[in-house]
Amino acid sequence: MARVWKQPISCEILTAVSRGTANEHLGMEFLEVGDDFITARLPVDRRTIQPYGLFHGGVSVVLAETLGSCGAAFSVPEGYRAVGLDINANHLKGATSGWVTGTARPVHIGRTTQVWQIELKNDAGELTCVSRITMAILQPR
C-alpha cells in the first residue's frame, strides 16, 4: 500500500502526544511507523494485568484503539479530526509476562470514514487479539 500519512508522523511525535495520558501511564512504547502501519507495545505488568495475572482484555482494547485512532488522525489532512465510532476485539490467547505488541493497518480510508485492523501478539509472536476500529472523519469547523 502507498504511504497513507497526510501529516508528519514518527514514534517521537506519537510519544510526545501521549505524554500525560493513559498511554504513558500504562507504559506504551511506539516502536515503528511505516508507510501504512503503526506498531506499539505495552508491558505485561501490574498496570496492565487483571486480578488473575493475565493481560487485561480492556488494556488490549486501549492499545488497539490508540493505534487505530493515531493511524486515522495522521492520515487525514490538517484541520480534519478522526473520532471513534465503533471498536471490537476478539481475545484469542492470554499473555502473562513480557510485552504485547500491536500493529495497525488501514482496511479502508474514505472521505468520511476509516476502518483500521489491529493485530496484537505476545513475545512468541502468537496472536493474542484481533481488533477493528471504525473512525468518523470530521471536516474542519
Q: How many structural units, i.e. domains?
A: 1
Largest sheet: spatial strand order: 1-2-4-5-6-3
Cα-atom Rg, whole angstroms? 15 Å
What global shape is seen? globular
* Count of beta strands: 6
- Unreliable stretches: none
| SS summary, helix count | 3
Q: Percent range for helical residues?
A: 10-25%
* Assigned CATH superfamily: Hotdog Thioesterase
Helix and strand element order: HHEEHEEEE
EC number: 3.1.2.-
Family: Belongs to the thioesterase PaaI family.
Enzyme class: hydrolase
Organism: Hydrogenophaga pseudoflava
What does this structure look like?
By secondary structure, the chain is of the alpha+beta class. It has one domain: Hotdog Thioesterase (Thiol Ester Dehydrase, Chain A, Roll), CATH 3.10.129.10. The chain contains three helices and six strands, in the order H-H-E-E-H-E-E-E-E. A six-stranded antiparallel sheet has the order 1-2-4-5-6-3. The longest helix has 18 residues. The radius of gyration is 15 Å and the shape is globular.
